Amino acid sequence: MFLDPAIRDWVLFPITLIMVLVGVFRHQLTILMTGEPPKPDVKDIRQGKALMRGQILAQNKSYIPAAAFIERKRYLCEAYEQGTYLKNKAVKEQSAANLMADPKNMEMMMDGMKKQMMGI
């Protein structure tokens, strides 16, 4: 297909340039609207790693001596029962009203709305 050079220079190049600039603008606006991602809590990370350690121990029990497995299992079971690795030792149940009043949850809901707005 043959394309006139004037059409290419005065129509296709500007349309391509505008589309690229709109994409860059949308990306920068999304970054500006969403802000920084929330940093994970140290207690959350510690609990997750402790549970992962128990899973890995259970999966690989056939590769270590039985005495070592029993000792490690005993240590982890005691730590889990005492709540050493738990982020909240006393579990509280939150009602729907409390979830709406918590600033963290409100921020998460607003982030979702901001992302949807940028998609539109």
Name the average pLDDT: 84
- Total beta strand runs: 0
Shape: elongated
Unreliable parts = none
> Could you give the distance between the termini?
35 Å
Radius of gyration equals 27 Å
Report the sheet with the most strands, covering strand number, pairing sense and barrel closure: none
Give the DSSP E fraction (strand runs of 2 or more residues). Answer: under 5%
Helix content: over 70%
Order of helices and strands: HHHHH
Query: Helix- and strand-based class?
Result: mainly alpha
SS summary, helix count: 5
Question: Would you summarize the structure shown here?
Answer:
The protein has helices spanning 5-34, 42-59, 66-82, 96-101, 103-119. With 120 residues, the chain is mainly α. Helix 1 runs antiparallel to helix 5 and helix 2 packs antiparallel against helix 3.
Task: Provide structural commentary.
This protein has 120 residues and is mostly helical. Helices cover 73% and strands 0% of the residues. The chain is built from five helices and no strands. It has helices spanning 5-34, 42-59, 66-82, 96-101, 103-119. Helix 2 runs antiparallel to helix 3 (66-82). The protein is elongated. The two termini are 35 Å apart. The mean pLDDT is 84.
Chain-wise SSE layout:
Elements: H1 5-34, H2 42-59, H3 66-82, H4 96-101, H5 103-119
Helix pairs in contact: 1-5, 2-3
Notable characteristics:
single chain; 120 residues; mainly alpha; 73% helix
